[in-house]
Recover the amino acids of this structure.
């Protein structure tokens, strides 16, 4: 078996059907598809099972997170390589061949992504340098205006909507860290791969259309809490305690100052900008979550 295509899914029948159709188009007889359903509350899996009865589906009774679902697929997948996908992307026809070629050329390539775009073809930032103290300082990090490379390049971290993964690497360092429910599990994996001697690549000639945020759009407030929860967990996993302390000392007061600034702008502009109102709400709910000692019950739904 060459590739196991693992689709992590929760709700959205049309998105899933469109992705499965593109996956079938890119497959050879030496590839397989596994769908892992994270306790969908709609009828999407029933619908897909009727249309594609030969595709293997894992149905979870609870949503235990993106990384957990991806690991389930990798645990039973028979491929030499994995392609781990969100349900809101489209697979280009050349993706498996191009990934295989790069894996064969670079034996220590552990994780590879193509260049993400929106559905109009505009570039979505897909890679970054490895995180550092300065990169995690909100505000200061915006000074870095570097872009994704234009040719195949080794990078620090990848945005994980669609990742090609070497099974040998997974056998050596493990899969996703399941302490992360959603957000930053891909970033931590890239850092762990790098620290274990594996390489992380961006392959910009592979263009991957991505409907960014489709799975969390209806849960804006919950997703912002989940983002900050995962971000703080990420700091604690990869940085020494001294740096984690500095990050807290900078970023939490920064949230409060941002709230004051955005509230003022929203008031004087009479709430005309939805983007600014969302930024204000973001800071408000995260600060309330922190003030209440980060309750576990807040965040994205688990069932």
């Amino acid at each position: 078996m060459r590739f196991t295509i693992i689709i992590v899914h929760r709700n959205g029948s049309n998105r899933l059907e469109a992705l499965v159709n593109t996956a079938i188009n890119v497959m050879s007889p030496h590839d397989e598809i596994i769908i892992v359903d994270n306790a969908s509350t709609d009828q999407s899996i029933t619908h897909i099972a009727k249309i594609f009865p030969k595709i293997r589906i894992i149905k979870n009774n609870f949503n235990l997170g993106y990384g957990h679902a991806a690991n389930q697929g990798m645990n039973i997948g028979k491929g030499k390589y994995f392609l781990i996908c969100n349900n809101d992307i489209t697979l280009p026809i050349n993706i498996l061949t191009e990934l295989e070629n790069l894996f064969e050329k670079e034996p220590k390539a552990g994780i590879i992504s193509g260049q993400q775009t929106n559905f109009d073809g505009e570039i979505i930032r897909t890679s970054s340098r490895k995180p550092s103290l300065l990169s995690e300082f909100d505000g200061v990090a915006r000074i870095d205006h570097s872009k994704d490379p234009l040719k195949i390049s080794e990078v620090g971290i990848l945005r994980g909507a669609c990742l090609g993964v070497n099974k040998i690497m997974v056998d050596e360092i493990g899969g996703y860290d399941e302490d992360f429910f959603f957000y930053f599990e891909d970033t931590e994996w890239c850092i762990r791969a790098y620290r274990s001697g594996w390489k992380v690549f961006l392959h910009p000639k592979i263009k991957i259309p991505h409907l960014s945020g489709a799975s969390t759009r209806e849960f804006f407030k919950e997703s912002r809490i989940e983002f900050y929860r995962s971000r703080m967990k990420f700091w604690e996993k990869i940085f020494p305690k001294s740096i984690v302390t500095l990050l807290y000392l900078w970023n939490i007061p920064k949230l409060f100052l941002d709230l004051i600034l955005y509230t003022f702008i929203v008031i004087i502009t009479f709430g005309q900008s939805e983007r600014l109102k969302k930024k204000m709400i973001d800071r408000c709910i995260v600060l309330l979550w922190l003030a209440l000692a980060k309750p576990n019950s807040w965040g994205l739904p688990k069932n």
User: Anything to note?
Assistant: Residues 217-291 form one domain. The first strand starts at residue 3 and ends at 9. The chain is about 40% helix and 20% strand. The mean pLDDT is 95.
